[in-house]
Design goal:
With 139 residues, this protein is of the alpha+beta class. It has a single domain, classed as Immunoglobulin-like. It is built from two helices and nine strands, in the order H-E-E-E-H-E-E-E-E-E-E. The strands form two sheets. It has a five-stranded antiparallel β-sheet with strand order 1-2-3-7-6, with no helix packed on it. It has a four-stranded antiparallel β-sheet with strand order 5-4-8-9. A hairpin with a 4-residue loop joins strand 6 and strand 7. The termini are far apart.
Length: 139
């Protein structure tokens, strides 16, 4: 009788342990003071030893309204203790006021930043940060 009671509990515990492992992590993104109404999500999923990040933003004003001379939004990855590197350009839809981008990184812990930039030739992020998010723990 005790075995009949314990067996479903053990199976349920195993199922909960499996569900909690390996799934994507989702972070809520909010806009900085430069883009206060902006919100969205950052989803990070482990794939083949790397991390696939998907950034989706809504209520995003045009880059030129956030900072004079800006034409693009750029996503940066800054590993813990490291230097920021460009992940890519946020695909901005001016009519919908949305932005989306997918990129991969080998880092499990990093800060993701989105900045307004004059163009894609920049080599470091500007001070015009639209949103930022810490991801993961210790590497």
């Amino acid at each position: 009788m005790l075995r009949q009671i314990l067996r479903p509990l053990v199976l349920a515990g195993s199922l909960f342990a499996l569900v909690g492992c390996g799934g994507p992590s989702e972070y809520v993104l909010t806009g900085s003071s430069r883009s206060a109404g902006t919100d969205g999500t950052l989803t990070v999923e482990e794939i083949e030893g790397n991390r696939m990040m998907t950034v989706e933003l809504e209520h995003l004003p045009p880059p030129s309204r956030v900072s004079e001379g800006s034409t693009v939004y750029v996503v940066w990855i800054k590993p813990n203790g490291g230097t920021p590197s460009m992940a890519g350009r946020l695909d901005y839809d001016e009519d919908e006021r949305t932005g989306m981008m997918r990129a991969t990184t080998p880092h499990s812990a990093f800060e993701m930043m989105i900045t307004a930039e004059a163009d894609m030739t920049v080599t470091s992020p500007s001070e015009v940060v639209i949103s930022r998010q810490e991801v993961g723990g210790e590497e």
